[in-house]
Fold this sequence. Notes:
This protein is an alpha+beta fold and 306 residues long. Helix content is 68%, strand content 10%. It folds into two domains: 2-50 and 135-295, Up-down Bundle (Multidrug efflux transporter AcrB transmembrane fold); 56-131, 2-Layer Sandwich (Alpha-Beta Plaits). It has helices spanning 2-15, 23-43, 51-54, 70-79, 109-118, 133-162, 165-189, 195-221, 227-260, 264-295; strands at 56-63, 86-92, 95-102, 123-131. Strands 2-3-1-4 form a four-stranded antiparallel β-sheet. Helix 8 (195-221) runs antiparallel to helix 9 (227-260). It is elongated, with a radius of gyration of 24 Å. It starts with a helix and ends in an 11-residue tail after the last helix.
Amino acid sequence: MEIEEKAAQKFNQMYDSYDRYLYVPAILVVAALTVLGGNFALNGQFVNLGTDFTGGTEITYQVGGGQFSPQEAEDAFANSGRPGADATRQTTGNTTRLLVELPPPQLERDEARQILTAAGIEAEVESFRSINASVSEEFFTQAGIAFGLAFSVMSVVIFVAFRDAIPSLAVVFAATADIVFALAGMALFGIPLTLGTLAALLMLIGYSVDTDIVLSTRVLKRERGSLKSRVWSSIKTGTTMSSGGIAGFLLLYLVSLALVGPSELSNIAAVMVIGLAADMPITWLGNAIVLKKYVNGDYDGVVPWS
Length: 306
């Protein structure tokens, strides 16, 4: 209760000059676009693509005794004429596994085992998956279409629900900004775009729209209470929702990292934490301010079409 009272006091202090905090989400979006632009300039792509979308080979080895580093495994593949390997070591209990991703061309299972054996690493191939480059390119195209359709349907539903340009555009902008920031985080921390992390981005759209709808509904459609009290009520509810999501996915990330090391699960959790953390200032210092200005008549030139 004491924390809520202090937060309410802080909001009361901010409210009279609330509009000036609109620069915070603007800076976040500019910073995210800068990171993505820098990654594109350096690597030729906004985010690194995983094997699902580039093709290649994914191998999981069960490793015996002996000390080795993932770098040694990568060097072993490079010395055998297969550069570009990305190796990750995972330890669960007494079992050590080595996950290796290789770019095209495809590799045969026996060759995969022999490369590490020749380098003095005692390892047996536990699982082996090879994806043709043309098939992965088709995956990427279809995934892009699915993502675009999901975002488009969400936008249409929002516009139909509110029938008002400013609130609808504010919700769509907030969702877009969350995705852009999450992609920038992926580029910054080296998280590849895979089917798993793409699913995380789709989940992030849902989380973002959820908090924005709570805000827009209470500010625009609830009649009791002052505008200030309606905004504060939305902030309390939305912050609780986002904080719960961040805590849950952060716990998932830490547990996954502790049990098996870097994995697809930890990457999904990391994307969600980054996106949800960005959603809070983007929604409550972006969308909330836009709606406040809208209700106060700052956008009187823009009329609803209902």
